[in-house]
């Protein structure tokens, strides 16, 4: 019963953004031009990765998973209970599944500061 309640709580906190709503938020959070990538680049990536759904999750064959609106990898960037992680963003992957995407944006900024930039996705 507690597991079901926790799952329902997580689902109710998720959000699917409209393109314009997400664009405004990403602009406010300073992503337009961040790391040399335009707002259009960020929107395109978020749409391709999650269709703007903060609750998106993708499980991979190696037991790692991608989480949230930017599909951030548990293998390198966050920690979950299923796979070892470098946890470079110092966060729990489940935190990337809520409607508040501030932590997703902070981690995405960290990812693009690496040599691969957006190619990390």
UniProtKB/TrEMBL annotation:
Reactions accelerated catalytically: Hydrolysis of (1->4)-beta-linkages between N-acetylmuramic acid and N-acetyl-D-glucosamine residues in a peptidoglycan and between N-acetyl-D-glucosamine residues in chitodextrins
Subcellular location(s) of the protein: Secreted
EC numbers, comma separated: 3.2.1.17
UniProt keyword terms in alphabetical order: Antimicrobial, Bacteriolytic enzyme, Disulfide bond, Glycosidase, Hydrolase, Secreted
Gene Ontology BP terms: cell wall macromolecule catabolic process; defense response to bacterium; killing of cells of another organism
PROSITE patterns (UniProt xref): GLYCOSYL_HYDROL_F22_1, GLYCOSYL_HYDROL_F22_2
GO MF assignments: lysozyme activity
Name of the protein in question: lysozyme
Organism: Aptenodytes forsteri
Taxonomy of the source species: Eukaryota, Metazoa, Chordata, Craniata, Vertebrata
